[in-house]
Amino acid sequence: MRRRGFLRLGLLGGGLLALSSVGLGMWPALLRHAPRRKLELLDEMEFAVLAAVAARVVTQPDADPIELAHRVEEAVRFGAPESQDDFKKLLRLLENGFAGMLLDLRPRPFTRLPPEAQDAALLAFRDSRLALRRSGYHALRRLTAAAYYSNISTWAGLGYPGPPSISVPT
């Protein structure tokens, strides 16, 4: 193969890669989990990703992933603006098919994966060599678990009687 032919082939391959990356990145989320209340921080796609994560992280029969996503959104909303932006970027990174293809050979968006593949995608974040992905996984897991266990209805099953009542002398 001559040098010009090699360069043309390289340019053609690069162009195809660029087009496919745009296509993978633009693949729309599957909005299985629609919000029940007005969203204050997240958009509908980010909310759908968060609810899908909640469904995979908190597998208790009484856990409602939509309610958990609302509670996490509320908690993150009171954080610093930089933390809010990072959280939104994390949800978009998890959803993005192009990033999934590059990092995990997973071209489909997170919300379009079956439950077993969503578990695998989360485990890939947890076990990643990139600290950013590992810390992102732990943030998502902790926030969704905290949203579940902070609900008073879960306390009895844990054997937690609730916070102590403090009487203030008058």
3D architecture notes:
By secondary structure, the protein is mainly α. The chain is built from eight helices and no strands. It has a domain at 38-151. The protein is 64% helix and 0% strand. α2 crosses α3 (65-77) and α2 (44-57) crosses α6.
Structure in a nutshell:
The chain has helices spanning 3-26, 44-57, 65-77, 81-95, 97-104, 115-126, 131-149, 155-158.
- What general outline do the C-alpha atoms trace? elongated
H/E element sequence:
HHHHHHHH
What is the end-to-end distance? 93 Å
Q: How many strands, what sense, and barrel or not for the largest sheet?
A: none
Low confidence ranges: none
Whole-angstrom Rg: 21 Å
Mean residue pLDDT: 87
As a percent range, the share of strand residues is under 5%
Number of helices: 8
Based on helices, strands and strand pairing, what is the structural class? mainly alpha
The helix content, as a percent range, equals 55-70%
Number of strands: 0
SSE topology:
Layout: H1 3-26, H2 44-57, H3 65-77, H4 81-95, H5 97-104, H6 115-126, H7 131-149, H8 155-158
